Amino acid sequence: MRRTRRLVAAAAAVPLLLGWMAGSAMADDISNNLDASIDATAETMTLNVGGEAGTTSLYVTPRNGDGKNGCNLTGGTALGLEVTSTNAGVATVSPGSITFTACGDVKTLTVTPIALGTATISVSQVSNTTEGTFNLAPATFTVTVAAPANTAPQIFVEGVTGGASYAKGAVPAATCRVTDAEDGSTTFAATLGEISGTYAADGIGQQAASCSYTDAGGLTAAASETYGIVDPSAPTITPVLTPATPDGNEGWYTGDVSLIWQVDEPESPNSLKLIGCEDQNITADQGATDYSCAAASAGGDATSKTITIKRDATAPTVALGEVSGTLGDNGWYTSDVTAEFIATDATSGPASASQTATTSGEGEVVLASPAFSDVAGNTTPSGAVTQTYNVDKTAPATPTFVGGPTGEIFYGSDQVAPTCTSTDEISGLASCEVTGGGTSVGTHTYTATAVDVAGNTSTSTLSYEVLPWSLKGFTSPVNMGGVWNTVKGGSTVPLKFEVFAGTEELTSTTAVKSFTVKAVTCPGSSAPADEVEFVTTGGTSLRYDATGGQFVQNWQTPKKPGTCYAVTMTTHDGSGITANFQLK
Question: How many CA atoms lie within 13 A of 332 on its CB side?
Fold first, then answer.
């Protein structure tokens, strides 16, 4: 068996000895460290052919027996030595020369075995600049080179690391590597043990890779490494929906929906645990509802999956809301009718809460609700709700007057108020009435108003003019034209005049409405005046004088000399004449 002696690296590690020859003069020793003794007996270094080289260290030990106190190697002095092998064919030594410059120096020699046999390694002095002497014998040692020994092989498990964890399906190949000084190196596959653990049936757990080798000399080496096999991944969760995507709008389903949870764990199926994951068959309307599935295995926890399902297979319900329009008479509308239709939907809600529809045409009109959809996309078709309305937007035909005055007539002429006629083709005529007209002087208008059953109206007008009477007078003896008639107070003045309706002279005293006498301020001296000579013609009451062809009204003047009066006669048509009088 080959051995290598590991030698001390510093001289201080070797005990100082007192000497190796009793009673001899003691020079400084040069010795090796193959053993702890410094003596003349040569130490032995045993090596093997083809084996590793051996090493030893040479060092200085001061002895103070050569007449020099302390270490000889001081003051820059040196000791040069030659190192030799007595049989270089058996063993060689290097370096071939060494130099000590201080007692603390340590020099390492390397001995290389060459062949079987022995050789002596010794040193001899080649130079010495010190004043002292050196004992070289303790440095000598013998080298024995023996045949190689059968060393035990070394074996290692490679490819896997003990205590490590590997994913199932990705465990590295375990191999055995052998090194043997005699047999050389070799590799081969390791032997894998059974997997152990709770989920060993799934291939998850602990496994050992073992190696064993016996060399040609009968020595055996063995090694093993135990590692873990783990599930590399958590379960996968896949929700399977039928239909795969919502068939309505805004994520809504408008029919039945099925949900199946597909959970996969191929690496360790026996370790799989489910939380929730209940399959669903949804056949009733529902708002947004969450369904969840969570799974765990030896590979870890899968991320929980949540699916939200909302189903609405019911179309909106439609109802009539507010109605707007101009409501006439008897339930008839005199304008287009706009009706509001309101949709309700209990689940997804209506896409539009209300819509309007407006009638077109007249008569008995049917108004139908528009189509309504809910958010999910279910549709209630148009016409789900209908309502009938009577609509008459057209006024009756323009009324036609029957009878009545036209053009110009004179005040007091006999008048018969007109009537009117009209037609209405939709709701029918309710009435035709005439209003207005008049008998006073001036322009007058009759208005004919036709009203249909719905309350629509149309009108027409008939205008005419009532002309005033024409008056002639006062005649002589009364002067007109702004002249002041001078009359003796207390006398009677005949007021004579004529009244004409066009060319027709009126003779009835009923034509006269009134006579008025009004005191007025007398004129200045420049005002025209005329002396009136009165001729009395009968009584003082109003009368029509057929002989003279005129009305006569006698006015007895007041007995107030110096006063002035304005006398006015007014007829029933509003015409009048005035004369001025000054009493004397």
Answer: 23
Q: What is the mean pLDDT of residues 129-147?
A: 92
* Sign of the C-alpha dihedral computed for residues 39, 41, 42 and 45 taken in this order: negative
pLDDT of residue 529: 55
Average per-residue pLDDT for the chain: 90
What is the dihedral angle through the alpha carbons of 110, 114, 115, 117, rounded to the nearest 10 degrees? -30
Which residues contact residue 342 at a Cβ distance below 8 angstroms, ignoring those fewer than 6 apart? 318, 319, 320, 321, 353, 354
Once rounded to an integer, what is the mean pLDDT over residues 79-103?
Answer: 95
CA distances from 268 to 194, 199, 203, 275 (A): 17, 7, 8, 17
Q: Which residues lie below 8 Å from residue 69, measured CB to CB, with a gap of 6+?
A: none
pLDDT at 23 over 70: no
Reported pTM: 0.52
Whether residue 509 contacts residue 543, with contact meaning beta carbons closer than 8 Å, is answered with yes
> In angstroms, how far is CA 552 from the centroid of its own chain?
106
Task: Name the nearest CA neighbour of 295 among 307, 306, 304, 285.
Answer: 304
Residue 16 pLDDT > 70: no
What's the pLDDT tens digit per position in 36-50? 787 778 899 999 888
Of 478, 576, 481, 584, nearest to 527 (Cα)?
Answer: 481
Which whole number is the average pLDDT over 387-405? Answer: 96
29 to each of 8, 110, 142, how far by Cα in Å? 17, 21, 18
Report DSSP letters for 64-104, one per residue. --SS--S-S--TT--EEEEEEES-TTTEEEE-SEEEE-STT
Residues 6+ apart with CB under 8 A from 525: none
pLDDT, position 255: 96
Closest CA to 191 of 169, 167, 175: 175
Residues in contact with 53: Cβ distance below 8 Å, sequence separation at least 6, in sequence order: 4, 47, 110, 111, 112, 113
Distances (CA, A) of 99 to 70, 123, 128, 306: 19, 11, 10, 87
| Residue 536 scores a pLDDT above 50 | no
C-alpha 525 chain-centroid distance: 106
Instruction: Name, in order, each residue with C-beta under 8 angstroms of 22's C-beta and a sequence gap of 6 or more.
Output: none
* Residues of the chain above pLDDT 90, percent: 81
Pairwise CA distance, residues 556 & 534, whole Å: 11
Q: Is 524 exposed, middle or buried (0-12, 13-18, 19+ CB in 10 A)?
A: exposed
Per-residue CA distances from 240 to 201, 258, 305, 377, 483 (Å): 29, 8, 12, 23, 124
DSSP string covering 187-239, please? EEEPEE---BSTTGGGT-EEEEEEEEEE-TTS-EEEEEEEEEEE--S--EEEE
Residue 292 tokens read as: 């969840």
Nearest to 235 by CA among 179, 295, 184: 295
Q: What's the rounded Cα separation, in Å, for the pair 456 and 422?
A: 12
457 in helix, strand or coil? strand
Collect all residues with Cβ–Cβ distance below 8 Å to 434 and sequence separation of at least 6: 401, 404, 417, 418, 419, 420, 446, 447, 448, 449
pLDDT confidence tier of residue 66, bands split at 50, 70 and 90: low
Q: Is the pLDDT of residue 5 over 50?
A: no
The residues pairing with 518 across neighbouring beta strands, listed in sequence order, are 566
